[in-house]
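Workshop exercise sheet. Pairs work together: one partner reads the sequence aloud, the other fills in the structure field after running the prediction. Swap roles for the next sheet.
Pair: D.N. / O.F.
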Amino acid sequence: MPRGILQRMNILHVEDNRADSDLLKEAFECIGIEASVQVTHDAKKALIVLEEGIQNQGETTPDLIVLDLNLPKMDGREMLKRLKEHPQLRRIPVVILSTSNLEQDISFCYDNYCNSYIVKPIRFEEYKRVAKNILEYWFSTVALPPYSSHN
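Structure field:
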């Protein structure tokens, strides 16, 4: 059953570029939909946050992960593979938000079960449109299976 866009959404944004993470967070705020956005600047830290969520019986598990591909330490491709192999995390929707529009990157991500692939917008107005579409689609339109104890 769709959760309803009025319910507060928890989003984990894995993005090493602070300007890009600020843009997406600001875009969510500008469209007037309440979302809690936690940002981690590398994939290893994000995996730690997700493991902590599991240990807390899902209280801090995000409802959606927005993942960049080009990250330090561990890239987004490796994180995506680990997420989708993890029995307690694989159902969390993963939206790739990357500057890459290379066919091989897009194919790799879908082959490894990303739920959406979006090329990063250039202008802020486009970021707002993308943010609105992400929230409406993932939190108002689709029915998602339970993936943690808080759903």
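Discussion prompt: The chain is about 40% helix and 15% strand. What would you look at next?
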